[in-house]
Amino acid sequence: IGPTVELKLPYCLSVEADALYRPISSRGETVYADGTRSGSTGSYVTWEFPVLEKCRFRIHGVGPFVGLRPSFRRPQALTWISPYGIVTGAGVTFHRGQVKIAPSFRYTHWAPDKPWVFGGAVRNQTAVLLGFSF
Length: 134
Description:
Strand content: over 45%
Order of helices and strands: EEEEEEEE
């Protein structure tokens, strides 16, 4: 959930910037040499700021688009996760009366996390978004 701003450029191009509220949760478990286990869970809030340069097409009253650019995030308390990545997306825009509806699919490849945590894990993320504008 979050606001979006789009700036239309010449030709088929536009730039879209979003501020997306994204809660995440984590769960970890440690198994000790003697077989005992201990676990922990947590819930966190992140704000993601993808900036997409989009190219739109016009086909029979709908507007398919593709986009690619950087994405940034600001985690609430997870200081070890990567704050930047690359996002790509595709979707379609159509109108219903005064409302513009834009379902889209996005894939974000986040840069590696801090190397001392979980071996510097790389997180990939997919999302299905549904945008409404008036």
